[in-house]
From TrEMBL:
Family the UniProt entry places it in: Belongs to the DoxX family.
Protein name per the record: Putative oxidoreductase
Protein topology in the membrane: Multi-pass membrane protein
Species whose genome carries this gene: Acidocella aromatica
Transmembrane domains' residue ranges: 12-30, 50-71, 78-97, 109-127
Gene Ontology terms: cellular component: plasma membrane
Taxonomic placement: Bacteria, Pseudomonadati, Pseudomonadota, Alphaproteobacteria, Acetobacterales
InterPro entries: DoxX, DoxX-like_oxidoreductase
Subcellular location, record wording: Cell membrane
């Protein structure tokens, strides 16, 4: 019974999933763009290469790529791009294997949250953007 309900509302559920999947990026991307100096300082603190450029990349990925995914614009390739970015941020920003104590525990949680998000982005790549998307209007993907 549930299976048929899910199929009946699959496009609505894909729209909701797109939003929920990137909500974290939208929130933190907005924080990064409104506090660029703080973002650059954070990038330097985490060991990101070329902190100023890393901050710009983070803002583009987290705010603009995520907004495009919510709107359903080039959803499949952007899901893969955001997945690669998420892997990179996990490795650079949450390298728990080099830490001890509570920092190790907290970063291990965040690293595996990134891995889980990557799974959602991979699933979005497979399913596509659904009916409620610019992709559908343009008959893309």
């Amino acid at each position: 019974m549930f299976k048929y309900g899910a199929e009946k509302f699959s496009d609505e559920l894909i729209l909701a999933a797109r939003f929920l999947l990137v909500l974290l990026y939208l929130i933190f991307g907005w924080q990064k763009i409104t506090d660029y100096a703080g973002t650059v300082a954070y990038m330097a603190q985490t060991g990101a290469p070329v902190p100023g450029i890393s901050a710009v990349i983070a803002i583009i990925m987290e705010l603009f790529v995520s907004a495009a995914i919510v709107l359903g614009v080039f959803t499949r390739p952007l899901a893969l791009l955001l997945m690669a970015y998420t892997l990179g941020t996990g490795i650079i920003g949450h390298h728990y294997w080099n830490m001890t104590g509570m920092a190790q525990f907290e970063n291990m949680i965040n690293f595996y949250k990134n891995v889980s998000i990557m799974g959602g982005l991979l699933l979005l790549y497979v399913t596509g953007s659904g009916k409620y998307s610019i992709d559908r209007l343009l008959q893309y993907g």
